[in-house]
Amino acid sequence: MTALWMLGAITGLGIGLLGERILGRRAARQSARLAALNERLDVYANFAKLAAVRRAETEETLSSLRREAAEAEGEIGALQTAATDDAALTATEFHCVDRVARAGGPLWHVAVEALDATAPWTGVRHYAVAAETADEARKRIGERHSSATAFAIAPAAPLVLPDR
Fold first, then answer.
1. Over the chain, what is the mean pLDDT?
2. Domain range list for the chain
3. What pLDDT is stored for residue 42 in this prediction?
4. How far apart are CA 13 and CA 4, in angstroms?
5. What integer pLDDT is reported at residue 145 of this predicted model?
6. What does the pLDDT average to over 97-105?
7. How many helical (H) and strand (E) elements, i.e. helices and strands, does the chain have?
8. Which of 50, 99, 141, 156 has a CA-to-CA distance to 32 between 20 and 30 Å?
9. Distance between CA atoms of 104 and 110, rounded to whole angstroms?
10. Which residue windows are coiled coil (predicted)?
């Protein structure tokens, strides 16, 4: 019977050793798998940190662009207001000189102010002049009103007539 007990003990010991080996290999594979998953987790954590940094940069850029857009909208509003104000200030009655504008030719707006009582009118007259250049338009008005003491001639500006 002792031999039987001995055989049972050795068989149990053999099965235990075999089980330990199998479970040891399994544990090693699971440990390797756990290490690989931890490495992947570290990589994803680094990606998350990089994404957070890039998101912060993007939000900063976006807020900067929003500020610039708001400033541009403000400037556009100011320019539109100035344009409507300028349209209200633009003379609606023009005096014309001796030339008729060619189709598509440039027109110039020249303001002439009467400076003293010797002038034939008071205030400012607005002239629409057909000329190739601003200097030519101003020169032609200067020939018409040659007295430098009686008249002040403003620089010529392009004249765009509104469509009606």
1. 84
2. 1-89, 95-158
3. 94
4. 14
5. 77
6. 62
7. 2, 5
8. 50
9. 19
10. 55-82
